[in-house]
Amino acid sequence: MGFASRIITIFGLVLLAHAGYSAHEHTVLYSNIHLSSASTALPQDIVIETLVSLVIVSTGLVLGAEKLKPASWSEWAKEVEKEGAARNPFYRLEERYSFWDVREKRKEFADWMREGPVKV
Known about the structure:
The protein is an all-alpha fold. The protein has helices at 3-32, 44-63, 73-83, 91-94, 102-115. The model has no long low-confidence stretch (mean pLDDT 83).
């Protein structure tokens, strides 16, 4: 998350907290007044401030998000293969000596299939 996106997110959260506090104060003020003519709906400025703060917080979070990963497994696997062991979560499993080298075994099998049946 970059510096600018953090500032935008913090600013939006401060506005959202202020809108929440204003809504609370408004409800406390009108709960003490027992007039039937008094409107208990939130004022438009509090509603607008809440919506604007939600848009600002969402914008800051989207700007600070990491790059999206590919949606398909094969695309992700291609990227991991290109980058090598740096991002591969299965690197430790693939490099353990007690496990088969699957790619090597597949290559041996393909070579054996190309040679054809063994004649005795």
